[in-house]
Design goal:
single chain; 5-stranded mixed barrel; 18 strands; ATP-binding
């Protein structure tokens, strides 16, 4: 009788382990990335889950004979001896003893993916062919780095006594309302795709104290710009028993510092491949919204047309200012006008026209919105009514307030957007594995 042990051995070595196996015969599984035939020998480049490994075929190494059954994008199992690369110091390669072909492609790809990067490929073609184009080492490195960002966020918050949660994506109300919300027919009842886990993470603060989630959110914004997606991954946290919304900014600063250090330490191959300039975070400067507007006006001589929010050019100016004045790639802007913040944002007791909220700018572009929330039931109901909202529509959300909430606050950080700006992309779609926008729902 067969028994299942609960473990699966890959049976394949990783390139990082080559130095420990010099002159040993090992097994390597992967895809044939490229074949370079030379006079009397050939280089067979194998693409594994994270590496591109040079293997060398020669009749001198074994009785195995290379033939046309081995082609690019075949899945293979290569057996051979690990040796030092004679032409590249500090590198290793495998002398091929045998190649077992596990599968063949049905046809050749119309895109050559084994170059260093996909040159001159239009964005639409790149996205249409995503199952293929992601095989390019630089393309796939983007999402290893993105893995590191989400991993760092999760690991840091777990170390700070946060509980990871899973909130529903089909909701009776929208967290932010407005027209940018997807409506669904749910067995004859109208419901909405989640714009944010906001309501649920607030509800869970009295239970767990500190909570976070990394998950998809949906915005029915009819934008076709380089910085908007209709589905993206939001990294959210909410924390209770705060003294002020500065506690939230401090927690995010710690999380970002941890993320950048993790990327430097454990994602060095991808960082080097994409030539990423990781920011060094010691501390992050803070400026109030109206003070920021004054800096833009007086120092940079730009006329202000909107005193409720920032234009993209103004964010760029503030990013430049933070770099020049503080050497920082990041800048917190606090005390946004109340009319531009959601109904759950706590107003500043010193001036209720402004909120105890903030945005975080990274290299001149907003990546985070956060702040302190209203925790008093009567105060929350009063603000809803002042905005023409019916508290009865938010009964389950207000239940948490009615039966007691600690002072709390939190934030949301867009995973694709921080990836985009960290890697210097001009379009957020390059930072989304399978982007969803107003025109695209495939692949």
């Amino acid at each position: 009788m067969d028994k299942i042990s609960g473990a699966v051995e890959n049976g394949s070595i990783e390139y990082k382990d080559f130095p420990a196996h010099v002159d040993e015969v090992v097994c390597l599984k992967g895809m044939v990335h490229r074949i370079r035939e030379m006079t009397g020998f050939a280089f067979i480049i194998i693409r594994t889950a994270r590496d591109v490994v040079q293997c060398v075929y020669s009749p001198d190494f074994s009785d195995y004979r290379l033939d046309d059954s081995v082609a690019e994008e075949c899945a293979v199992k290569v057996t051979g001896k690990v040796v030092k690369d004679a032409t590249r110091e500090g590198r290793y390669e495998m002398q091929i003893h045998n190649i077992e072909v596990l599968s063949h492609p049905a046809e050749l790809s119309p895109i050559v993916i084994n170059k260093k990067q996909l040159d001159n490929i239009p964005l639409d073609l790149d996205l249409n062919m995503r199952p293929v184009t992601l095989r390019n080492p630089k393309e796939r490195a983007v999402f290893k780095i993105q893995e590191g960002i989400a991993r760092g966020f999760r690991d840091f918050l777990l170390s700070q006594s946060f509980t990871e949660i899973r909130t529903p994506k089909i909701n009776a109300q929208g967290a932010e309302g407005g027209a940018n919300i997807f409506k669904l027919d749910y067995f004859g009842k109208q419901v909405f795709l989640a714009q944010s886990p906001q309501f649920y993470k607030q509800m869970l603060v009295p239970i767990y104290g500190r909570v976070f989630e990394v998950g998809p959110v949906f915005r029915a914004e009819h934008h076709d710009t380089s910085r908007h997606l209709n589905e993206y991954v939001s990294m959210d946290f909410e924390m209770g028993f705060i003294d002020s919304f500065y506690d939230i900014m401090n927690m995010e600063t710690g999380a970002l510092r941890y993320i950048m250090e993790l990327l430097q330490r454990e994602y060095a191959p991808e960082i080097a491949l994409l030539n990423v300039q990781l920011p060094v975070i010691e501390n992050i400067p803070v400026v109030k919204f109206m003070d920021a507007k004054e800096i833009i006006t007086k120092k940079y001589k730009k006329k202000i047309t909107d005193y409720r929010d920032f234009e993209p050019e103004e964010e760029q100016i503030l990013g430049k200012w933070a770099k020049q004045e503080f050497g920082s790639d990041f800048l917190f802007v606090t005390h946004y006008p109340s009319e531009k913040r959601p109904f759950y944002a706590m107003d500043d007791p010193a001036d209720p026209a402004y909120t105890l909220s903030f945005d975080l700018l990274f290299r001149g572009i907003e990546i985070t919105t956060g702040g302190q929330r209203i925790h008093d039931y009567n105060e929350q109901v009063a603000k809803m009514r002042a905005r023409g909202m019916d508290p009865a529509d938010f009964e389950s959300y207000l239940m948490a307030h009615k039966y007691g909430m600690p002072p709390h606050g939190g934030l949301g950080l867009g995973l694709e957007r921080i990836t985009m700006h960290l890697l210097g992309f001009k379009n957020v779609r390059y930072a989304s594995m399978f982007p969803r926008d107003i025109n695209r729902v495939t692949p």
